Automatic annotation (TrEMBL):
Domain of life: Bacteria
Source organism per UniProt: Polycladomyces zharkentensis
Keywords from the UniProt entry: Activator, Cytoplasm, DNA-binding, Phosphoprotein, Transcription, Transcription regulation, Two-component regulatory system
CDD domains, per database record: REC_citrate_TCS
PANTHER family membership: TRANSCRIPTIONAL REGULATORY PROTEIN DCUR-RELATED (PTHR45526:SF1), TRANSCRIPTIONAL REGULATORY PROTEIN DPIA (PTHR45526)
InterPro entries in the cross-refs: 2C-system_Tx_regulators (IPR051271), CheY-like_superfamily (IPR011006), Sig_transdc_resp-reg_cit/mal (IPR024187), Sig_transdc_resp-reg_receiver (IPR001789), WH_DNA-bd_sf (IPR036390)
Subcellular location: Cytoplasm
Listed name of the protein: Transcriptional regulatory protein
Amino acid sequence: MIRVLIVEDDPMVAEINRRYLTSVPGFGCSGIASNVTEALEFLRNNSVDLVMLDIFMPGKNGLQLLTEIRKEGKSVDVIVISAANDIQNIKQALRLGAVDYLIKPFTFERLKTALQTYQKEQEMIQEQNEWNQEELDKLLLHPDQTRSTSAKLPKGLTRETLQRVVKSIDTLKSGFTTEELARDIGISRVSARKYLKFLTEIGCLSVEPVYGTGGRPVYRYDVKQGHTVRIAPYLET
């Protein structure tokens, strides 16, 4: 669960933002602060992953709060949600490390996209300690910048069948076998084994041999956290 602090001086707007936030799976509202002082106090006494931050507030503004957060070295990310649409405020927020910037009034879909993008990035970060350039580009660059270099499938695999496989494993979830996957989507075990091998190699699945009384192992597959991020480039058209 990603813990979020909402910093917004308008109680009605804060409540709308809370409802939007909590409607997105994987996010929870840890608290609401109406000014910089309250926000700093909350951050010093509670564990927070993400701040949804307004800029215009009585007293110190949101950018001053963001500056204080960076000075204190707090490990917290920030999405700015503000009516401030001038380039100076936008550039300053980005320079201070805001991961996204939404201009009021915004749509729920835009906020949902911001949250889900952040969620996927966190899943990728938590999964591994070392990165290659391709993986880092997927994390840092805008999707439009990486789409032209989307990954190609190995010879013999098709995007259409891969889509069916991914849909099936999302349903099977964990502990499934090659035979179960093949039966679920109506392909041969040989074909199913090729797709499972590929998904295991790119880190979407883990595999473990289970030994029965017959002596030969049955291989069972489990879906790894963040698999949707890893498979996405191979499903793009």
